[in-house]
Write a structure and sequence with these properties.
Radius of gyration: 16 Å
Helix content: over 70%
Strand order of the largest sheet: 1-2
Largest sheet: 2 strands, antiparallel
Number of helices: 4
């Protein structure tokens, strides 16, 4: 049980780092380059996802005595599918909250990040992408 909490905590730290990169790129693209925030979310999402993938592979889900069930290529392919869906959920959810609840896109985005990260991304990464088996 303690190990699961430790892995969950590491996953949230990794998600925070990837999310910070993602969020800063979104703000930069929107505020300084004039790109619509939904497109900026996609741009930031791709860069943040790359950061998150490598932190998760090397640190978050890397456990001694175990190896990954799937090859790097399969992990990356599954991760790309998760990221595409994550970006779509974040962009559409941010748009919905911003448009219908009249909340700024920056705050709306944080709400969507928390929902998607904790409820969806963590579970898919732990139980599918970075699934472990004994060495």
């Amino acid at each position: 049980m303690l190990e699961k909490i430790f892995v969950f905590t590491k996953a949230q730290i990794s998600s925070f780092i990837g999310g910070a990169v993602d969020y800063l790129i979104m703000i930069f693209c929107t505020e300084f380059l004039g790109i619509h925030y939904t497109i900026s979310i996609a741009i930031g999402g791709v860069v943040g996802a790359i950061v998150n993938f490598f932190i998760n592979k090397k640190w978050t889900f890397n456990t001694k005595g175990y190896r990954y069930k799937y090859s790097f290529k399969k992990q990356l392919s599954a991760f790309i599918l998760v990221v595409i869906n994550s970006i779509l959920l974040k962009a559409s959810g941010t748009y919905y909250i911003t448009t219908y609840y009249k909340i700024g896109y920056g705050f709306s985005r944080i709400i969507m990040d928390l929902i998607v990260s904790v409820c969806i991304n963590y579970n898919l990464q732990r139980h599918l992408i970075f699934k472990k088996i004994r060495s």
